[in-house]
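Researcher: I'm preparing a figure for a lab meeting and need a structural model of a single chain. I don't have an experimental structure, so a prediction will have to do for now. The sequence is pasted below. Please return the structure as tokens so I can convert it later.
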Amino acid sequence: MPRQTRSSLGEGRSFGDFLAQFGNIHPSKTRTIIYGARLFSSNTKGSNVFGRIVFYIFSIFCETIMPKKIKIPPLSVVWVATSLFALVEAWFWWMYNYKWFDRESIAFLATITAGAFALFGYLKGIEEKRSGAADKLIERWNAPSFRAIIDAARAIVERDKDSSELGRPKYSLKTASAADTALRGNMQTVLGFFEEIAISIFVKAADEEKLKRFFEAVIPTGYDGFEAFILAERAMDKDPTIYKECQRLVERWTDVRRKDMP
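Model: Understood. Here is the structure written out token by token.
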């Protein structure tokens, strides 16, 4: 039978009924709460009044953690690791001060744990920076001003226009139309952005997995549409490294070799 109290709960009301009404806790959960509170209060030194106070405080605590509907918020890896680190360090501190273990070994383990946590924090910071860099690249790609450039170069990507016609020596600034000059500039802007993404990935400045999920179809398709222009520019300047990082990234993501300068 649940414990009867008179001072605050009223005549004939069990503590389980009080919890069910005051804390919106399902009655089936009150047995565990009452048993735990009784166990705690029975092991507490002092008068019966103090035990009841502990009993009451425990019931209020249970009211906050055992509602009818429990919604667990998403947990951050950093917070979980920090909490575990704090618990482990507290355990080491307890063993160091209150148990007859080898104190030198305990201090060594605590130092190793602290070092591992510091390393974790450092690596997690690098990971977050890379993720943030990838987010900025995606944000730039989706910017309205850049979308206008992408849309202008879409004719080349969709093969409505041969990109080799905009590569030297077929293209000449003196004789080219304003439309071709603008289209060539837009194509170079998009290729330059692809090159920036590739370099960011290869130097590990941005999160490749996030960028690949967003650009996996975009960059290879764009490169294939611009490939004739790239090869013409390489041949004209006799420089095989023009947009080479972008080519490397495309080959890495597709496992298909692209043409090199003859």
